[in-house]
Amino acid sequence: MSGDNSLPCHVAIIMDGNGRWAKQRGLPRFEGHRAGAKNVRRVVKAFADCGVKYLTLFAFSTENWGRPQEEVTGLLHLLSQSIDEETQHFHQDNIKLMHIGKPDRLPLELRRKVEAAIALTKDNSRMTLCLAFDYGSRAEIVNAVRRIKEDDVSTGDIDEVVFSSYLGTQGIPDPDLLIRTGGEMRLSNFLLWQAAYSELYFTPVLWPDFGKKEIDKALLDYRQRQRRFGSL
Ligand code: IPE
Ligand code: IPE
Ligand code: MG
Known about the structure:
Shape: globular
Number of domains: 1
CATH superfamily: Decaprenyl diphosphate synthase-like
Oligomer: single chain
Structural class: alpha/beta
Bound molecules: 3-methylbut-3-enyl trihydrogen diphosphate, magnesium ion
Helix content: 40-55%
Strand order of the largest sheet: 3-4-2-1-5-6
Distance between the termini: 14 Å
Strand content: 15-25%
CATH topology: Undecaprenyl pyrophosphate synthetase
């Protein structure tokens, strides 16, 4: 941890507001998700151009399975399509892909696509793009506890560093800046452990409208924060 906050090393975003974006236009919710998926490319490019090293995007939560079947199917379809359309671009831009969340509930074909995209881009070094899909922080924490137990780690050896190494975000620094679009001011089960000292930025701008200008505003706001990590 350092006091230098000219630029966040890791930005995490709760991409919220697609449904309302569509509603405002009298369109079905799916059109909002489609516009939201399209926005991912320009946001990834903008953060990579700024020099941010890690970008984590919350695309689908463990709770989002509770939405109507039609919407869930649409979101799975969009993820699949985005991987098809974007992986080569990300690869050309030297961006490494990773996934956090449960892989096993995704359709097999989609899981294979995700794995292939991760394998293709594994040696890229400009920025790591971490996609949180079927991700829930509580499930991630419970899963870490289970695996620690399975590995027979002795009680005295369990500390924060060891515990972190059992989370999906293992090896990547905690987010410096956590952005939520769409106006809600809550974490909705996103990175509860990792965001312990993240700077939080909430904007009413809906995700499909969150572009370069909004990113610059968020980064400017971040630069003005004073991070103390409990010290003086
Ligand atoms: C975020 O947009 C995308 C997902 C949660 C999958 P929403 O679909 O939650 O949009 P709103 O909040 O209804 O506007
Ligand atoms: C959070 O948004 C999850 C994602 C953006 C993927 P939700 O729309 O699901 O959150 P709530 O229901 O408003 O808390
Ligand atoms: Mg929402």
